[in-house]
């Protein structure tokens, strides 16, 4: 709760608001104990601890991935349910891990597992690292991607992280370091996986007329995409070289006149490094199967045309389930990203989610 209280106060100062102005609250996925430290706080815990008096609240465990509370909050303010909605993500995955229980292992500590997990866990597919490994293996087979291509993502994001004092990982990461690290789930190694942390992030979604009076320049949601047209499992998708990101991204571009070429900075979900090329292709920054060349050409790292995960992402910044990516996109559009600031950034795209779930959002600074 301490991390969340600090994040809330920072967000309120930036917005020029007080706790009394917050009349809505929303989170993903809500309070849950299915994975150690993954979601220890619900909206009730936070309202009580922060002394908030809200007229609207919501938790979204089933929706367009971790983007869901931001999208739902936007709809809430558009329909007059609230004026200023505090959207939060808080985790204690680092301190919750022990030798007996690991973060992000579904059903950890429970005697029985049901549903589609009952087909995976008995086969040793205990976590998303295994499921993402399947997708990476198929993608490598189809398109000739190599571990070095994924290493370019991890090393590039580490260079961004070194310019971000809030990032967990500050030590340089070389390609030799990346390739020498232990394997987790072939072809994914240690540095292909995001880092469990204790932390929190807060985003305030305000009605357009209310935002005009805030301290910071309002950032406008240009478009959102949340379509899902595939089976809701990791292993039964028709094409394992695509994700739900492809449905959400297509939906996003149908709701705006802007194109991929208009985007200045990207925040793409990197729970595992393989998600980044899939999001790049889904959003149309390169064609299907061409992400490896797009990455090798230096497009997404420091100095690239489409800088991606400029705060270090979750691979080096720490896992906040996409909220840190959106926070970083906002900093870039405000021009407050310090040494990693992208010149004249006016438009950002953020994609959250891996596997079959996804949400995409396009942000503008007018």
TrEMBL record:
Domain of life of the organism encoding this protein: Bacteria
CDD domains, sorted: SCP-x_thiolase
InterPro entries, per database record: Thiolase-like, Thiolase_C_2
Domain Thiolase C-terminal: 230-359
Entry-linked PANTHER family: ACETYL-COA C-ACETYLTRANSFERASE, NON-SPECIFIC LIPID-TRANSFER PROTEIN-LIKE 2
Descriptive protein name: Acetyl-CoA acetyltransferase
Organism ancestry: Bacteria, Pseudomonadati, Pseudomonadota, Alphaproteobacteria, Sphingomonadales
């Amino acid at each position: 709760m301490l991390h969340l209280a600090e994040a809330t106060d920072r967000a309120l100062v930036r917005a020029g608001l007080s706790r009394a102005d917050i009349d809505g609250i929303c989170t993903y996925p809500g309070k849950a104990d299915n994975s150690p430290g993954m979601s220890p706080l619900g909206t009730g815990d936070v309202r009580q601890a922060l002394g908030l008096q809200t007229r609207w609240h919501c938790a979204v465990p089933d929706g367009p991935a971790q983007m869901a509370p931001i999208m739902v909050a936007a709809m809430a303010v558009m329909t007059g349910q609230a004026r200023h909605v505090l959207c939060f993500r808080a985790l204690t995955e680092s301190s919750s891990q022990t030798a007996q229980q690991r973060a992000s292992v579904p059903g950890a500590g429970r005697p029985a597992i049901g549903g589609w997990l009952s087909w995976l866990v008995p086969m040793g597919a205990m976590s998303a690292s295994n499921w993402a490994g399947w997708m990476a293996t198929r993608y490598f087979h189809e398109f000739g991607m190599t571990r070095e291509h994924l290493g370019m993502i991890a090393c590039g994001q580490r260079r961004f992280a070194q310019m971000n004092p809030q990032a967990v990982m500050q030590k340089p990461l070389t390609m030799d370091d990346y390739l020498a690290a232990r394997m987790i789930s072939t072809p994914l190694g240690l540095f292909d996986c995001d880092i469990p942390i204790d932390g929190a992030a807060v985003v305030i979604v305000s009605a357009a007329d209310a935002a005009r009076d805030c301290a910071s320049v309002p950032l406008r949601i240009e478009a959102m995409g949340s379509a899902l047209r595939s089976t809701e499992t990791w292993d039964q998708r028709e094409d394992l070289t695509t994700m739900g990101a492809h449905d959400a991204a297509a939906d996003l571009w149908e709701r705006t006149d802007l194109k991929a070429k208009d985007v200045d900075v990207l925040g793409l979900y990197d729970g595992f490094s393989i998600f980044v090329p899939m999001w790049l292709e889904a959003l149309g920054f390169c064609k299907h199967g061409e992400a490896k060349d797009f990455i090798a050409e230096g497009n997404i790292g420091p100095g690239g045309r489409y800088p991606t995960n400029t705060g270090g992402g979750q691979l080096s910044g720490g896992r906040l389930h996409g909220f840190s990516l959106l926070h970083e996109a906002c900093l870039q559009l405000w021009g407050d990203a310090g040494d990693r600031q992208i010149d004249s950034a006016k438009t950002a795209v953020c994609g959250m989610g891996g596997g079959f779930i996804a949400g995409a959002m396009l942000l503008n600074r007018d």
